[in-house]
Amino acid sequence: MIDEFTARRVTADPERARHLLLQMLRARRFEEKCVELYSAAKIRGFMHVYIGEEAVAAGVMAALEPEDAVLAIYREHGHALLRGVLAGAILAEMYGYEQGCCRGRGGSMHLFDAATRFYGGNAIVAGGLPLAVGLALADKMAGRDRVTVCFFGEGAVAEGEFHESINLAALWQLPVLFRCENNLYAMGTALGRSESQTDIALKAAAYEVPAWPVDGMDVLAVEETARRAVHMVRAGGGPHFLELSTYRFRAHSMYDPERYREKAEVATWLERDPIDLLRAALEAAGELPAKTWAAVQGEVDSEVQAAVEFAKAGTPEPVEDLTRFLYTERGPK
Amino acid sequence: MKTTYREAMRAAIREAMTRDDRVFLMGEDVGRYGGCFAVSLGLLEEFGPERIRDTPLSESGFVGAGIGAALGGMRPIVEIMTVNFSLLALDQIMNNAATLRHMSGGQFSVPLVIRMTPGAGRQLAAQHSHSLEGWYAHIPGLRILTPSTLEDARGMLWTALQDPDPVLIFEHGSLYNVAGEIADDAGAVDIDTAAVRRSGRDVSLITYGGTLQITLDAAEPLAQEGIDAEVFDLRTLRPLDDAAILATVARTHRAVIVDEGWRSGSISAEVSARITESAFFDLDAPVGRVCSVDSAAALRQAPGTGRTPLRRPRRRRGPGGGGHPWVTS
Ligand SMILES: Cc1ncc(C[n+]2csc(CCOP(=O)(O)OP(=O)(O)O)c2C)c(N)n1
Ligand SMILES: [Mg+2]
Prior knowledge:
Chain A: The pyruvate dehydrogenase complex catalyzes the overall conversion of pyruvate to acetyl-CoA and CO(2). Chain A: One of its GO terms (biological process) is pyruvate decarboxylation to acetyl-CoA. Chain A: This is Pyruvate dehydrogenase E1 component subunit alpha. Chain A: Its EC number is 1.2.4.1. Chain A is of the alpha/beta class. Chain A has a single domain (4-315), classed as Rossmann fold (3-Layer(aba) Sandwich). Chain A is built from twelve helices and eight strands. In chain A, strand 7, helix 9 (219-234) and strand 8 form a beta-alpha-beta unit. Chain A is globular. Chain A starts with a helix and ends in a 21-residue tail after the last helix. By secondary structure, chain B is α/β, with parallel strands linked by helices. Chain B starts with a strand and ends with a strand. Chain B has a seven-stranded mixed sheet, with helices on both faces. Chain B has a five-stranded mixed sheet with strand order 9-11-10-13-14, sandwiched between helices. Chain B has two domains: 2-181, 3-Layer(aba) Sandwich (Rossmann fold), CATH 3.40.50; 195-292, Rossmann fold, CATH 3.40.50. Chain A binds chain B through residues 69, 100-106, 110, 112-114, 119-122, 124, 127, 129-139, 141-142, 160-161, 164-165, 167-168, 171, 323-328, 333, and chain B through 24, 50, 55-56, 58, 60-74, 76, 91-92, 95-96, 100-109, 140-141, 143, 163-165, 192. The structure holds thiamine diphosphate (TPP) and magnesium ion.
């Protein structure tokens, strides 16, 4: 059943809805391929996939300008991809190859890309928040109207760096958009088992930061609120905070037997798959003919396939280069 | 002209702020209060609150913000009141500042300077007495400076700010009031090399930072006993100036390392290891060390010295000939 509100939003701008559908599907198919390649032992290291949460990244990336900055956590393949990092460069990075976006040094958890101002890929929970504050401080001091968007999980909310960063950003009225991806679990710890107050937006509001909870499975809602929040931040309105409620459909990492949640709970959330929801709405509105949907899928599949070919052809960085880039190379004294 | 270590540091900050708009100072009480060691006193009036930026008590937050600002094109100087509180920012220093350039395959660098005060200056008990500069020197990706003279206090900061990578400057608390003469045009100094502060033939006393003066003082009574000590200032704990260390040992054939850090796993251990690895056959005697006892500092534990938890040197005959008395701990 498509509710009337969703139907109206889809018909209002079907082009935009189809764009968001494509973006979510790119992240989904890419992640599915990553899981397959991990199982085939092509990808190494820790890996965390974003399946189920695609609407969160897709919605905000659509609202950003190229000169804005993005920071994310270790579950960031989707963020990097939708920000514009090439799929092949991401996958080669996970293979540990020199052709990867960081020469194969960081792998899945540490994607960086200067060209799209993508600042990681941080594997320390909440470790990226202070960096976001600093990037925004630099913009403010230099008088630039850029926005820094910082993604983190609800697990980060229990860390001191969360509170320190929100406070600093609010105190100094910095152009940061904080995006909490509340997927209800930090590894195996449910939100209610780690927070005395589970209303996360309320915590940000306590620092005088405008904060909203958003349905993170409704990509149109995510995009709409992101657009407004980004606009406010860019216009000098200080930091803003969005709490996206979402759910990860897969295990926390590739080593997680998922003993901490019920299958029934997962099944309930699967019914709110953000891709299925939008696809159904578009179809109901007559805005996604079978041919168009097939074309969208075809486009995504070829992108993923090309990425795999690119990654497979990669080569590891020579071991002698291990200490390269530890320090900036200096010219002769 | 006459100056103090504190004034030399302040002059260095003032010069950097004047020469480069991207430079700013941030930390707890650097502005209104004037800095907890009064280093930045008066700078708020001169440069305003944007560039002399007071922060809340959020070491991890503002150190990380310094890293982010450096990524964003600024040249921040972050002051952490003392090394003891830097432990709350260790995650940012180690996991972000030190790794971002390497981890991003050279795409991002972090041109940040962090200043802090180490040392057990005035009987401040266990939580205010740490000397962790050697610890920080353990971390690849950082550069660790320990200015011990007025010239270095005046000149290391500018050079550190020109470095595209993170630099930590340790200003030993006992040095701020040291007064003396400095050239009117004193300015930037190199941050790559160690320095011989007193030439000698019989033994190299290798030290840095807050223990340089104590070591120089110790060289005098030694001279009266006929031991001509060379006093060697490491200046930079990471990367170490290996060539200069080996050269002093080649001249004197004996080395004693004086280090306010704890003995076990200290920078003195590292220097000693490098000497024995690379200059073993130059040595006439085992390397000696004078370090802090492996213990938490106590308020009143060293009657008579009253200043630092450094163990007073014991004397014994050095093994391996030469006949000089040997200082060890
Ligand atoms: C400071 C820190 N503590 C612990 C960990 C181990 N760890 C990795 S992911 C994770 C859960 C984080 O959950 P959340 O922030 O909600 O993000 P999600 O994985 O749900 O996307 C933990 C505890 C870590 N990486 N960093
Ligand atoms: Mg979570």
